[in-house]
Design a protein that fits this description.
The chain is of the alpha/beta class. It is built from 6 helices and 8 strands, in the order E-H-E-H-E-E-E-H-E-H-E-H-H-E.
Length: 187
């Protein structure tokens, strides 16, 4: 009667590496290969519309790694539609996405205006500057930790110590919002 309830074993994370800009093909492939070293279930897609992206999010991924150039104000745009970053965040939360990583370089002001995540159960990483090939090593380091069971905040602190110093020159510049710090992203 007072025994322990059986714990559900954490499942392997599903990953979507995608873009709304077909011009980033090489970066898309590089980032997807990094994910594939840590996760068995990695889908790669080039979307031609915001609607296609939203339909893919409906498929319940744990991680969405998205390349997109934002329009002023933090809008994702295609030839026929636009979507505010906050609306993408809401859709990801509805579908239990644990990490949304905007991998394309965008202006801080567009993130601030368009990606309101306060109060949302979602980890969000927004890339300001990939810093060339440094991004690949950084992505590798973060994924190697979280795929083995570290939380994203602990992996982040291990990769980006929270103290100023010269070591920061070798890292990409990103904004990290830990709205779901306890989320499991096992590989």
């Amino acid at each position: 009667m007072f025994g322990k309830r059986p714990q559900r074993a954490p499942s392997e994370s599903r990953v979507l590496v995608c873009c709304l800009d077909p011009c980033v093909g090489a970066q898309l492939d590089v980032d997807a290969s990094v994910y594939s070293r840590h996760y068995k279930r990695v889908d790669v897609a080039v979307f031609h519309s915001v609607g296609e992206l939203l339909r893919a999010v409906e498929l319940c991924y744990d991680i969405v790694h998205l390349f997109t150039r934002l329009a002023p104000g933090g809008l994702l745009v295609d030839a026929e539609a636009s979507l505010l970053g906050s609306d993408l965040i809401a859709k990801c939360c509805e579908r239990d996405v644990k990490l949304l990583w905007i991998a394309d370089e965008n202006k801080p002001d567009d993130y601030v205006k368009g990606f309101r995540a306060t109060g949302k159960r979602l980890n969000l990483i927004m890339t300001l500057n990939r810093n060339g090939a440094s991004f690949d090593g950084f992505l590798e380091g973060v994924l190697s930790r979280v795929s083995r069971g570290d939380t994203l905040p602990s992996a982040w602190v291990a990769m980006v110590p929270q103290a100023p110093g010269g070591w920061q020159r070798g890292l990409p510049s990103c904004i990290f919002f830990a709205g779901r710090p306890d989320a499991s992203l096992l590989g």
